[in-house]
Amino acid sequence: MSSAHSAVPTAGSVPSPSPVSSSSAAAAPTIAELLEFVRRTARDEALIASLPLDPEGRTWIRLDGPGGSEAWLIGWPPGTGTGWHDHADSIGAFTTAAGALKEHSLAVRLPTDGWKTLELADGVDRSRELATGQGRAFGQNHVHEVLNESEDVHAVSVHAYYPPLPRIRRFSRTGAVLRLEQTESPEDWQ
């Protein structure tokens, strides 16, 4: 079921989701369960080594996450990133399996809909380095960008989201101004 895909190295690149197997018997996973899953999966050396790495674009393999969650193993060439985005109504977690990633995030709850431009207050910016084995979990509407700032080392990470991504909102940022640029749905990724 898993296959590798290459992405064009742009800030707007996202994995193309595969159909999600649903099980009515499976309970929705908690944030803690998603974090445990990505941490455990990041320690699977054979799986991490199976990800083909591209020198220019991100690569990924779709994984089976817990409780019907959407999960990905993602390779990050040096100098690549996601751009500012959120995962809408999904909770999530990710862990760095190799290399290091940096996450910039906003410590503020944004309105879910009905806006195009917001001026952010002082003090809402957060940054964290996520070395191999380090990860984090987040709630709904968490706005962040993830980057591999290395000049010469690939990074690999494991991500899980529940419910499977209903949409992703993409933002641009100039100083304190955050602008909603695009809302993507799963149909846009296929």
From TrEMBL:
CDD domains, alphabetically?
cupin_CDO (cd10548)
Q: Which Pfam families match?
A: CDO_I
Keywords, A to Z, come to: Dioxygenase, Iron, Metal-binding, Oxidoreductase
Q: Which Gene3D superfamilies match?
A: Jelly Rolls (2.60.120.10)
- Sites where the protein binds Fe cation: H85, H87, H144
S-adenosyl-L-methionine keyword on record? no
| Stretches the record annotates as Disordered | 1-24
Instruction: Write out the GO MF terms.
Output: ferrous iron binding; oxidoreductase activity, acting on single donors with incorporation of molecular oxygen, incorporation of two atoms of oxygen
Indicate the family of this protein: Belongs to the cysteine dioxygenase family.
| UniProt-recorded name of the protein | Cysteine dioxygenase
